[in-house]
Amino acid sequence: MASSSSSPEKGKEKANGKSSDDVAKHKVKKDGLGWIEWFMGWFYLAYEMLFQRIVASNLQNPMPLPPINDLTFIVTGSTSGIGKEIARQLAEAGGHVVMAVRNPKAANDLIKKWQEDWSGRGLPLNIEVMELDLLSLDSVVRFAEAWNARLGPLHALINNAGIFSIGEPQKFSKDGYEEHMQVNHLAPALLSILLLPSLIRSSPSRIVNVNSIMHNLGFVDPEDMNVTSGKRKFTSMVGYSNSKLAQIMFSSVLNKRLPTEAGINVVCVSPGIVHTNVARDLPKIVQAAYHLIPYFIFSPEEGSRSTLFAATDPQLVDYCESLKAEDWPVCAFLNHDCRPANPSEEAHNVETAYRVWEKTLELVGLPSDAVERLIEGGEVKCKYGSSESHHSQ
C-alpha cells in the first residue's frame, strides 16, 4: 500500500523550476498537443493496457477498507461499472452511501438485491438513492440544495459518473455544452463547489474525481471548451480526453483555493483500463479485442480499488496537504495501483489551469469568488436551478 511519502519529486522540480522563458513559451497560444506529447500519451495508454495488472499486483482484491462506520459518501453514477462496486463495497464496510443516479429505479433494484445478499451478515446496508442527472445543471443544483438542506455530514464526494460516447457524432446537452465536457467535468465541478458547506461541516473530508489515463491525450482551449471553433476536428476521443484533462486542471486550482483549515482535500484517480459498459459503444473489432484480452483489462471490482483507497485511506490527507504547501501546479493524482503519479505535461500548465478554472465557473453560472464565499459561511447564487425549476427530491 502506498503511503504519502512517495511524492513524485520530478513533478516538484517541474513546478518550481518555471523560468521566465517557460512562462513566455506558454504565452504563445498552443492550438494542440505537440507530436511528442501526443506520442507519449498513446505510449502511456498502451503501457497501462499491457502492464496494469503487473503494476497493481501488490493490491488485494477486493480491497480491504479501514473502519468507515460513521462516514457518509455520495457516489455518482453508481448503478453500473466501477461506481456500482464502489457503492456496494463502501456500504458493506459500514459506510452510509448515497447513490446519486439518473435512474433511481435501477438503483433501488440493486439495493434490494444487495440487502438480500447481505442478509444475516450484519446490520442492513445503509444505502439510499437520490436523483441526479449530470446532463442537466438544474438537476445538479437541485441535488446539492436538497442535500445541504439536511445539514447532515458528507465525508467524501465521489465524482464517478462519466460518459465516453465512442464513435458517435458531437452532441450537446440542453444547457448547450458538449456532452463529454458537461458530464465528465462541468457538472461534477458544479456539484463539488455547491456541496462545500456539507464537506466543510464534516471535515476532514475529500472530493475524489474518477479520472482516466486518457487525459494524457487531452488538450483544453478554455475559449473553445465545446470544440466548436473549427480549429480542431471533434471526435469522441477528443471530447473524452479533453474533459478528463479539464477535470484535473480544475481540481488543481480547487485544491489550492481550499485553505488547510477547511479540511477538504481534492484528489483525481485513474482506475486503470476497466471492462465496463463503455465497451458496448466500441467498434465491433475493438469489442472482439476486449474479449480476447480479458487478462489485461481490469474487472469493475479491480478498477474500483484506487477510488476506494482515495476515498478512505487516512494517509491521503497528509499527501494532499503537502502538495498544497508546495509550489505545486497539480492536485494529488493516484494511479490504478493506489500510488501517487504525475499527470500529463499539459496538466502542469498553470496558466491554462487558471483559465479553465475561470471559464468553468462562468459556464456553470457561479461567481468567481464562490469558493471563498462558501468557506466563510456565505451563500452563492447559481444561474441554474432557478426557483421555477425547483422541486423537492
From TrEMBL:
<comment type="similarity">
    <text>Belongs to the short-chain dehydrogenases/reductases (SDR) family.</text>
</comment>
<dbReference type="GO" id="GO:0016491">
    <property type="term" value="F:oxidoreductase activity"/>
</dbReference>
<dbReference type="InterPro" id="IPR036291">
    <property type="entry name" value="NAD(P)-bd_dom_sf"/>
</dbReference>
<dbReference type="Pfam" id="PF00106">
    <property type="entry name" value="adh_short"/>
</dbReference>
<protein>
    <submittedName>
        <fullName>Retinol dehydrogenase 11</fullName>
    </submittedName>
</protein>
<keyword id="KW-0560">Oxidoreductase</keyword>
<feature type="compositionally biased region" description="Basic and acidic residues">
    <location>
        <begin position="9"/>
        <end position="23"/>
    </location>
</feature>
<feature type="region of interest" description="Disordered">
    <location>
        <begin position="1"/>
        <end position="23"/>
    </location>
</feature>
<dbReference type="InterPro" id="IPR002347">
    <property type="entry name" value="SDR_fam"/>
</dbReference>
